[in-house]
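To whoever is covering the structure queue this week,

Two jobs came back overnight. Logging them here so there's a record in the thread.

Job A:
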Amino acid sequence: MCQIEIDEHCDVWSEAIVLARKPHRCSCCFSMIQSGQNYLRHFSALDGDVSPGTLCMDCKTDRDLFAEKHDGILAHPSGLLGMVEECVYEGDDGDEDSWRPMLSRIKIRRVRATKKEASNECHPKV
């Protein structure tokens, strides 16, 4: 199993599942979270630096699975992809097979979100 090392712990770490009142973007896969959808709202602070974030429910599910296998360590929403990549590319033998499907899921969602955004830029609403 790959080892995740945390140098410092946040002074503040707050998360809640909330219903979106306006569109948001997932900090991990960049998918749009539409009004009326549930998402994870994150806020943390370390040494006075604040760091908000959001996770779509698909990325939240992946992060929960990842944390379950890594002693409960929760990745910041914007750091989940990097942590999974680290396990795939730098983990012990066999880790890449465990985490490669999750890495693929996140990257596929990211590509879809990017393509969708590019399509919307090419075809603006009138």
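Job B:
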Amino acid sequence: MSRKERYAQDPEYRNTAIERSRQNYQRTTEQRMDPRENLEGLLELGVHTEYRREDGTTGRRVMFSKAMVAELLGVKPKAFYEWVNDGRFPQSVVEGKFINQRVRDGIPQQLVQWTAGYTLHEVRAAIEALGPHLSTMTYYRQDHQPTRKELFRRVTEARVSIGWDK
């Protein structure tokens, strides 16, 4: 019997699968978090760094890596990456230059790398759109269409406001 057939026929197996799926979306803390609490200090939390776009445009802006956005939203980075990959969160249209600290063979190292990122305007818009949802629910699923539409609308408006309307 395939997993799909078992899921359809076995309620216990289905409940276990649903619970496992929900665990992927658990918060980094046990209590619900309202990401809007991060709005006030957002400028200080970002990294003022170089950026580059696919069209060759470069400059400097306050940027946030995907991991930083996940933390601001109160979700695990793995869950946030899944949101981006399955279309629940807008794809990044810019890369930022981020410095990652790591220890290799007991020696501290700084790794400078270009990685997908979001601007201050995009992150603010995302927090304002997702805040009401994430403050009352511990997960954000594909079928939460009103929240998703609001998120994409606000992030698109943020991009247009800084001249990045593509």
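Note for Job B: The first strand starts at residue 47 and ends at 53.

Please reply-all if you pick these up so we don't duplicate work.
Q.
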